[in-house]
Structure to design on (1404 residues):
């Protein structure tokens, strides 16, 4: 009953097999190998973006921070939702990589930036001239931190506002696959066609060992990205082992299948939880994350039964009156099984 | 009718005289001169802080950013009011000098950080462990950006909370003198005795050409500050010309007299404005700043009559329906005259 | 005939097997798993350093830059050999991570910092007071960039000088294992007992996929390192896959066996090359790297025969008079075979 | 007998008078005043550069670091002489402002970068691709740190090399006036016409209180500079007091007269010293600095007689055998008098 995060899972067999196959003899270092080149071409095809550049790193924080720094100056305002991972969970990585850009946290229901909030922020930004940080970048997260999902329409609207102010858009796609299969659109529609300039395409949470691709749709930014990646210590000499994983993951739509499975497990969990009289689903489920309010006593019981998940937000606690509801954050993954879900629901007496 | 800012004023005669006197022959460079040493000793006496170190810079942004960086690591959270100058008007100087610390904007009525808001923020900060920025520093501003004033009691309460979490406190005292004379306490009571670790003691807005002292109450931080100052390009070779100004300013309580005058002019302005049926004073006046809501038509008339001041906030505008009230920000200074004030009030038909 | 770098090799079977085994079910993220904990304990034992902290990253540049930044302030001078990887081949990663520390390149024969050179540099450093960067850190590389090796005695002497000036010591051990087995001492003797404060313990060049351990002998520095690692985007969520590789590598002294093999292959290459009348070994071979001067014509012939290696330094070229000697840099690895070596020597007509 | 530095002097009467005049009433803040605008126009005329932008700061380190950062990316190599002020005496300010660019110290006789040395460095730079810092900027100093002077021809040659590699050129002109009057060319010939992209035009060492102008010949870089200046805390609110000083200094060629006087005093010193049998002039005098080798015993005697100057380099000392020659660095200024010089020479028994 591991629902703490999709990054507590391992990797599926085809990915491991690809690693074994990649471990054959010598290969040029630092991404100059044929496997890496081949991955780039696949992603270009997949996104219908023949000029996009693709670079691999091993963490989502690195992907985000490097992508942001390559599109935003040190005196830029980075507009993002106040709950965004880059704002809350990366220990200041974006500030570090940009050399001190300012994250401007925006409110918004369901962890989604509302167009009017963004419009206001853009309209005000930098109006004080040199005294203020300048409009720099819009960073959206999809799935959001609360597991909700931007529709293609919503994404277009937000990117359009940014574009009107000549502000580039970064998409933190740590769970891009989960959003994509739920939305049912194409990768292109869900990224550059909507106005996204650079995408952190997450692999780790969906079945890789620590592989994230940064897709840069404007190739003019690519060389700077490469220098920043090296300088950040994120250029792996044996890059083929990252690329091989991601190729296997893309092969035969495996990444989409894994994401669909994770989403289905979350749906099963949601269905069960909705049977429980004391459970309240907090956010609209957009993919493989579920936020559910339950009395502390029930969380205590679930955890005693072996369920692993975090309370939300970070400072929530099971200490205190046991009838008070607190929120649990349940994340399913490609490797979550129906029996995991059902065991959880049984512990809740709803299965 | 110059009410745009106290920094549009010049310097009083004793300061200019001191400059002339300081311009006599040769002096050791980089603050190793006797004038600089003498200033340090005066400030130590004034603050009853015999071990404090005192360093001069030429802007408030430099004073704030260097003081903050010397007390807060790159991964620190800098708690401040959302309207704080460091958050809004320094183009990211604190982020730059700290190498990417994160400013955590706190709400609070009257531009003052409320104790409960701070307590909450401190309680939550860094609870996510290594994923999050750590409690770093509390930066307060007194007078605040909205011209309100923390009482000694309020200052003690906020600093006490910070101290409980081992978080040092910076005080942005760009208008420290204005606050001090209004509060009627001693410099020590209004700084280190309340729990302030480092103070940006503003001279520029109160009669100097561009002189701000950073007072560091914990001498263990002083060497780092000096290196940061040099590295930031803020160590003047002819430092005596800064020190001489500030000595003249402290002499015979000139700085307090200047501040009292500025405050008195603001009070006169307030008294007059309160006579006007359409005027609404927006924030409690703590010193020499006044925020007043007036219909656009009246602002238009005042400005046509030659009154110079800014609307607030930055994005406010006189374009639009003329009966709608918008806020003007009026700042008086040591060189504001009664006739300036009265001319303004006459233009309003209240004098 | 792949002699371009030891990082063009793959990983040995036990490492791959360990990855497969680690891929079993769920594990806590971000290094809070039992595999990571177990690795830390092994390294503590191996280095006879029960309080050392051990953190994993995926590149040598990250290991170096993070280790350096955790031991040297922004205004520090980082003393290193002018040919050091950190100075020449990391695109400014140390400057980036330290927020602008200054690398002070020192000369020295055989790519080794000579004690007198270091003593001079330390004696002069920071003598100009606040105007100059301050003595910050000594970074040594062993094996050096030219494949030479510091003896235990030499290492002690250099670290001793640093210690006399209260300057901590970083050891870039990208090829630590190769040096260690050649020197025939213990890991402790070759690190902290000699005066090393922090070690980049390289795994990648000696059989791992991209795993480097930073060993911090002073645990007081560990928390800062962890924050810097996170902030740099170098904390992997599925950290177990890094730790598992390194555990397999340490198991039954595999790492030492791999290193001994690589060194033996370089020795075989050296023996052969010494037979050739036009070959001149440029640097004393300390482990698995060989720098050999040959006329351009011979390099051309070797490369035509399929030998892969770099000329040295970077700007050397095969264009120009073919009788002029230029230097080739040959690196062997755990996976270099005798037949690779012999094929190379045959192409040279010396085998 | 103050020969420690030209920055130990004060300011001439016309500069002080201008300050007094500028202190009249209110003026717009932050450089939006008419005095600042007027200065910009004068410098444009003076340099025959109608599109140049001009910004004021209060230290040479700030001028240099901001100018460099506005023309060189974080991953840039900054080529400069190994003795350059930016490399030796600014505590890492360029590294800080650029976010970690790497200063590449070049040798060269007489503290001047030799064309062949620069050509080599440019030819090698960045040849290792993404692993290395990229050619970023050439920074020259004129007068050099050793008081020598680049001829217009030499300056053209060096800038030409940089231009061939698309590397912009910064000129540290802390003593630009001293060089200019000695060379006898126009400001334009000695800057942009020779290929300089940005100039730190020093006022402080030649009679101002702490005023340096950064002249940016490519206006496309100006907005970035302004943001960096603000962010660095170097935008003074009462900027008129800086501008007024520099206007007075330019008026009626005062700056040139002051520089000529300083140079003449250095010439008088040199003439006298050349009479002394044990004196050896170390570097060709280019303006107002003199480096002279004398036995320690003579330095001791001079200093006992009240002569103030530094030994060179920083770590030189009067401790040790008194017959050993060490170098003294003598700097004259606009306020050095003939009687100062003659007193010095008398103490040497050569006048």
């Amino acid at each position: 009953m591991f629902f703490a995060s999709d990054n507590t899972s391992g990797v599926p067999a085809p990915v491991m097999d690809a690693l074994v196959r990649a471990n054959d003899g010598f290969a040029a270092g630092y991404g100059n190998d044929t496997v890496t080149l081949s991955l780039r071409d696949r992603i270009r095809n997949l996104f219908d973006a023949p000029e996009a550049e693709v670079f691999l790193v091993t963490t989502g924080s690195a992907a985000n921070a490097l992508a942001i720094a390559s599109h935003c100056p040190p005196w830029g305002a980075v507009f993002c939702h106040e709950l965004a991972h880059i704002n809350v969970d990366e220990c200041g990585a974006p500030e570090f990589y940009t050399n001190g850009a300012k994250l401007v946290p925006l409110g918004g229901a369901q962890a989604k930036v509302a167009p009017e909030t963004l419009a206001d922020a853009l309209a005000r930004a930098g109006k004080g001239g040199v005294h203020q940080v300048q409009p720099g970048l819009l960073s959206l997260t999809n799935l959001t931190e609360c597991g909700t999902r931007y529709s293609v329409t919503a994404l277009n609207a937000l990117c359009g506002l940014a574009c009107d102010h000549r502000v580039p858009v970064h998409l933190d796609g740590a769970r891009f696959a989960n959003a994509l299969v739920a939305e049912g659109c194409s990768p292109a529609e869900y990224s550059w066609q909507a106005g996204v300039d650079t995408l952190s395409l997450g692999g780790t949470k969906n079945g890789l060992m620590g592989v994230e691709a940064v897709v840069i749709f404007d190739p003019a930014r690519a060389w700077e990205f490469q220098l920043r990646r090296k300088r950040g210590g994120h250029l792996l000499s044996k890059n083929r082992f990252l690329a091989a994983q991601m190729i296997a993951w893309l092969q035969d739509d495996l990444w989409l299948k894994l994401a669909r499975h994770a989403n289905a497990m979350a749906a099963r969990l949601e269905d069960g939880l909705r049977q429980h009289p004391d459970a309240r689903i907090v956010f609209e489920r957009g993919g493989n994350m579920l936020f559910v309010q339950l009395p502390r006593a029930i969380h205590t019981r679930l955890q005693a039964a072996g369920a692993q998940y975090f309370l939300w937000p970070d400072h929530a606690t099971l200490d205190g009156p046991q009838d008070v509801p607190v929120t649990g954050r349940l994340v399913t993954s490609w490797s979550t099984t129906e029996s995991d879900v059902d065991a959880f629901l049984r512990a809740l007496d709803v299965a």
